[in-house]
Amino acid sequence: MGDKNTPLLAVLQLLRKYNLKGTEDILRKEASLGDVEYENLDLPEVELASILTAHHTESDPYSYEFAYDTLKKFVENSLDINKHELSTLLYPVFVHMYLLLIIYDHNEHAVNFLEKFGTEQEDYCQEDLKRLSIVKHKDQIKGNELAEIYSTNKFVVQLSRDASSQLKRFLHEQKSSTVIINIINNHIQVEVHDGPGRTQAQVRATTGGILGEATRNENRTKVYYGLLKEPDIQVLPAPVEDEEEVEETPDKPKKKKAKKDNIFMKKPKSDPNAPPNDRIPLPELKETDKIEKGKALREASKRIQLGPESLPSICFYTLLNSGHTAVCTDICDDSTLLAVGFSNSHIKVWTLTPVKLRGMKSAEKLQDIDREAGDVLVRMMEEKDRDTCRTLYGHSGSVYKVAFDPFKTLLLSCSEDSTVRLWSLQCWTCLVVYRGHVWPVWDVRWSPHGHYFVSAGHDRTARLWATDHHQPLRIFSGHLSDVDCVQFHPNSNYVATGSSDRTVRLWDCLTGTQVRIMTGHKSTIFTLAFSVCGRWLASGGSAGELLVFDISTGSPSALLPPLHTAPIHALAFSRDGTVLSSGSLDCTIKLWDFAAITEEANGEEAGANNSIQKEEKFLLRSFATKNSPIKGLHFTRRNLLLAVGSYEGSA
């Protein structure tokens, strides 16, 4: 089959696509195409489009270099107000020119083209270009993840009306621009917005995703980011804890109690942005859970208000002799248990209080226990079997994430072995193995209300599960690469995911659809955290950058100065939402003034230019550890910050 037949085959494939049988048969007869060639009709969409629109320019490999050069000069000579937006066109045009040169077998020209203009692209694109440069022949396009993404999706570029008309004028006047016109028509989606062109800072704030920025329509859906109305819980007077104070001054508890009542009397008004309470079916609270919640509210009344003047104390737990084997950590909500997942597939759970971890009685002994007794959970525990640490065996690969449920009875873990396991913290055994992902599972998180959990993995999906179902309830697919981290919204109605495609997405648990796509990261996103109020989402990347997104609009409201020098693997908000803490592999913990960040964002809707100079003031304090990269952060109910890391020797 000669090369001259390729356009004919492309036309045939197009006729077959639109089911024009008669015309197809006539063309086959006239072109005398054999059955073998006809059966092998399987040109990728990108190749089909390029052949049909541009096969007359394919013969001249020099036209690509010339066309790119004229486009670059046009952007450089544009007015400053349009220049920064137009410059976002250069990268996608460059990539598609490279792929077209490969498709038309101009392989040497493609290599030269990449060498000549590749270094001029943005820093964050260099990693992608390295992966693209492996493609040296058109047969390799199919196996290359990035080449496939660019071939089958459109790159989104946002331009102002002025910039767009300037671009049209340029393309109209240039003789050499047919190549560029074809690329823009087939592979680039130009979104035109009203208003002036954006500044360099504004353009940089939202670029970075593998496929450019989000389109306008993708972030239009209404998101109920408010909190659910909590069920009324009777807060009993505090037991034992406060008795010591009673002895010293008998009238003190009265004062405290009055103050406490005020806190709980102020019932929050119903939030206009909150979803209806029955939008997602949530489990009924059991008696024991209500007692636990009451305890949490009592603790909350003793919480310390944090701010620039009163920073939290940090208690750092160091894992010694763990080498590089400790992978992930989690601390339960009431800060009494610490779980660590290791690369040798074990999970260890430690108690952080003097109360030891007890095992369960044997089956014979359990038969004698009165099941209706109020203290049945205490009675079923073995008195003699006490330990400060328990080990859970079951996974057959590195454990990438562990997570305690809100009521401290269950533990979730996910692993390289592509399973998620649910463990009981009473009998210390595995209860369920959830199989759904086919590749390693990177992250797993509980819903704040228990019962539901969400997992994310290498198969580019996140999945929503309920503890009583073997199969996932929802599969969230849409990311173009690994989903590396996942986080439940405080109202349990939404799930946020962060991916290697450098986007953060928000999904609706009810419908399973994507309701926000947030761009601005220039590297893989490793950790996410929702603010206490539910409106803001903080995300940390592998280049040490930290962004805060406004969920109501889907736009970045603050890019914090990149003071971390290594990937950020832990983020935690204080319980009152005023301080954001970030922990990184550069062995530092940084505290940020979140109240100031959100005020700034509210004050100057979505990142105006003057926020850039003020950013230094957002950092409250930086704490260094002794060569211990941070694996986890957790604020206790009284706002003490707990951090976990493994000591990596005095390097």
Automatic annotation (TrEMBL):
Alphabetical list of InterPro entries matching this protein: TFIID_NTD2 (IPR007582), TFIID_NTD2_sf (IPR037264), WD40/YVTN_repeat-like_dom_sf (IPR015943), WD40_PAC1 (IPR020472), WD40_repeat_dom_sf (IPR036322), WD40_rpt (IPR001680)
SUPFAM superfamilies: Taf5 N-terminal domain-like, WD40 repeat-like
Entry-linked Gene3D superfamilies: TFIID subunit TAF5, NTD2 domain, YVTN repeat-like/Quinoprotein amine dehydrogenase
Annotated WD repeat ranges: 392-426, 434-475, 476-517, 518-559, 564-593
UniProt GO cellular component terms: transcription factor TFIID complex
Domain of life (superkingdom): Eukaryota
Domain TFIID subunit TAF5 NTD2: 59-188
Pfam families, A to Z: TFIID_NTD2 (PF04494), WD40 (PF00400)
PANTHER family reported for this sequence: CANNONBALL-RELATED, TRANSCRIPTION INITIATION FACTOR TFIID
Family statement drawn from the similarity comment of this UniProt entry: Belongs to the WD repeat TAF5 family.
Record's protein name: Transcription initiation factor TFIID subunit 5
Source organism of the structure: Arctia plantaginis (Wood tiger moth)
Lineage of source species: Eukaryota, Metazoa, Ecdysozoa, Arthropoda, Hexapoda
